[in-house]
Amino acid sequence: MSKLAYQYVVLRCVPRVDREEFVNVGVVLYCHATDFLRAAWHVDRDRLRALDPRLDLDQVCEALEFIEGVCAGDQRGGAAAERPLSQRFGFVKAPRSTVIQPGPVHGGVTTDPERQLEHLLEQLVS
C-alpha cells in the first residue's frame, strides 16, 4: 500500500478566550489524494464545565456538528459545505475568536485516512 499525505487540525473548545484555557474536542483530517475530508469529535462535558460552568455545552455540540457538516458537504454546513473540498478545509482551519477554534495545521502520512482520523481522535481528544 502506498502512503498518502494528509493534513489535520485539532479543534479546541475555548470557553473563556481571556483565560486562554482550552480542551481538545475534535479533529479534522484532509487527504487530497483520496478526496477525504472528515471531522470526528467528542465533548467531555465534565472537563468543559470545570473550565466554565456557564458554558452552553449544547451550543458547543451544535458548532461541532456544523463543522462536521462542512466537511461532509451536507446541509448542516450551510453555504460553506457547497465549496470544493480544499476550500472547505481552508474554512475549517481558519483561526476564529469563537468558542471552537482550530489549532495549528499538522501533517503526516497514512495508508488509511479514516483509520488515521480515529487514531488522532483517540490520542488527542479522548
TrEMBL record:
<dbReference type="InterPro" id="IPR021398">
    <property type="entry name" value="DUF3037"/>
</dbReference>
<dbReference type="Pfam" id="PF11236">
    <property type="entry name" value="DUF3037"/>
</dbReference>
<protein>
    <recommendedName>
        <fullName>DUF3037 domain-containing protein</fullName>
    </recommendedName>
</protein>
